[in-house]
Design a protein that fits this description.
Elements: H1 8-20, H2 25-29, H3 40-55, H4 61-67, H5 77-86, H6 94-122, H7 127-140, H8 154-169, H9 182-188, E1 196-201, H10 207-220, E2 225-230, H11 235-247, H12 251-256, H13 263-276, E3 278-282, H14 289-303, E4 307-311, H15 324-342, E5 346-351, H16 374-378, E6 381-386, H17 392-395, E7 398-406, E8 412-419, E9 424-427, H18 435-440
Parallel strand pairs: 1-5, 1-6, 2-3, 2-4, 4-5
Antiparallel strand pairs: 6-7, 7-8, 8-9
Helix pairs in contact: 1-6, 3-4, 4-5, 6-7, 7-14, 11-13, 14-15
Length: about 450
């Protein structure tokens, strides 16, 4: 490796300056990370220094060796620290040392990114995947640049906040995108830019239906642009479901071709509305997160983007051989970061484990999210679908939307009506459950059962 990619003298000079004047450590720690040191022995000494500070111990040659007696090489920490202290040149140049160390670290990251791209190019991968990995690697470098400060004076933030308060008071502020379901909007207060909204449920409860319906509402009713990644259904299936949902045409008749005379005007109307919508679909299977990010950025640049739908998180391909729980957690955090980067709401569909089926009330909780608890941690909003098929109302399509987490509001729930034949949800028009049933915790549990009605088919 070229010596231009590191400077051992600068590393020794910075560590020596800390021993001369430990009060500099707060300023230095805000600019230089442990990983910025090239020499592993110097990185270990810097770690020991930070551990001393965190423990409230004085930072000197002896205390760092008490915290970490040995270097990674097995040599004495005390000897290494004493040598650096003895060669210290004072503190006047510490900022220069810190800058040099940081710059060299960034250069190494650039080289690593280039090597990663080169290795990807040598693998048997599609060109699009190689480009996506390269874009992701280069995007990660932005965090290494010395740009905005890590903190902001509250005085500088106040004008923007007061303006937002005034806009809300005057009714001119955006409250987030509507889902198309008024009762749900009232709870979550709209889909907000930068938020990750998780829609989860057991198999067959309508996760895809709800997610796609929201994307259709944003693009057909609100005039926005949406991108849906469907790794389970084809784009033709999604379009067919869109016609059924928006036209109120029985999906079974569309699939089988048994079209009735009064269906054609509905089909024509739905096709016309969907054709005008800025709704884009990607149905490639096994997409990785870098590839999803690349496609989403392309769409935002070329078409605009107001909402992003991921169906669903577990089907996103992994790039390594990590434990799947860790991999899904990493993907979840990446999707949250993508929402912040694009400044659009990202709707992520997820599966629930069957823990709720063993409870008396059958109600799912955010902790029931399958594959990784990180999904619950990353989510700004968690919407859980609960449809109890052991009850008459459940068999007839009555579904609870339980908002188990909402960063900008209180958790709550509402009831909607699933119209399985039209693959859509509509506001619930029936009699709400009694207070007694709510208190019993079985909102959808009734003693009588229907034999099943064709106008409320399951999804």
């Amino acid at each position: 490796m070229s010596r231009d990619l590191f400077n051992i003298n600068a590393e020794h000079g910075l560590l020596g300056a800390i021993f001369v004047d430990p009060s500099l450590l707060d300023d230095i720690a805000s600019k230089v990370n442990i990983a910025d040191f090239y020499e592993i022995e110097n990185a270990a000494l810097y770690q020991a220094i930070l551990d001393c500070q965190a423990s409230g111990d004085p930072v000197d040659v002896v205390t760092v060796s008490i915290h970490h007696p040995s270097l990674p090489s097995g040599e004495s920490m005390l000897a290494h620290a004493a040598e650096i202290h003895s060669k210290a040149q004072g503190t006047s140049s510490w900022r220069t040392y810190a800058r040099v160390i940081r710059e060299r670290a960034v250069c190494r990251k650039v080289v690593e990114a280039a090597q990663a791209i080169t290795e990807s190019a040598s693998e048997d991968l599609p060109v699009a995947d190689i480009i996506a990995r390269g874009q992701m690697a280069m995007a990660d470098l932005r965090d290494l640049e010395d740009g905005e400060p890590d903190y902001h004076r509250i005085k500088d933030i106040l004008p923007e906040v007061v303006e937002a308060i005034d806009a809300r008071y005057n009714g001119t502020a955006s409250k987030g995108l509507s889902t198309g379901l008024p009762d749900l909007d009232e709870i979550i207060r709209g889909l907000r830019p930068g938020n990750m909204i998780v829609i989860a449920g057991l198999t067959g409860t309508g996760k895809t239906v709800l997610g796609l319906q929201i994307a259709q509402h944003v693009t057909t009713q609100l005039g926005g642009a949406g991108l849906a990644f469907s790794m389970e259904m084809t784009r033709q299936e999604l379009a067919t479901r869109g016609i059924a949902s928006m036209g109120g045409v029985h999906l079974g008749r569309l699939d089988e071709g048994n079209i009735e005379d009064d269906d054609w005007p509905k089909i024509t109307s739905a096709v016309g509305r969907l054709a005008e919508a800025r709704l884009y679909v990607n149905d490639q299977a096994g997409l990785t997160l870098p590839r999803i990010r690349s496609i989403a950025r392309q769409c935002q640049k070329r078409e605009g983007l107001d909402v992003l739908l991921i169906d669903y998180i577990t089907l996103i391909g992994s790039e390594g051989g990590q434990n799947r729980t860790l991999e899904v957690g990493k993907i979840s955090t990446g999707l949250k970061n993508l929402a912040k980067e694009l400044q659009v709401p990202v709707i992520v569909l997820a599966q629930l484990n069957r823990g709720s089926t063993n409870r008396t009330d059958k109600r799912p909780r955010p902790s029931d999210l399958r594959d990784s608890g990180q999904i619950e941690q990353d989510a700004d909003v968690v919407i859980l679908l609960n449809r109890d098929m052991e009850t008459e109302q459940g068999q007839n399509g009555v579904t609870q939307l339980i908002v188990g987490k909402c960063r900008h509001g209180k958790p709550g729930e509402c009831v909607v009506q699933a119209q399985g034949q039209f693959v859509r949800f509509v506001p619930f028009g029936g009699k709400p459950p009694s207070d007694e049933l709510v208190e019993m915790g079985r909102v959808l549990k009734f003693s009588s059962r229907s034999k099943g009605r064709k106008d409320h088919e399951t999804f």
